[in-house]
Amino acid sequence: MVSKLFDAGHINGAHAMDRNDNHGAASRRRVRLRAHRMQTSAA
Hints:
mainly alpha
């Protein structure tokens, strides 16, 4: 489930980056922050 959502977000983010670089960058930032929080809480 989580991997499916991540894959969809990554693909959508790549397409959005083509249309609007700012939107794509914001999407990647949110994904990175979320992943970092999960790593920190798991450690």
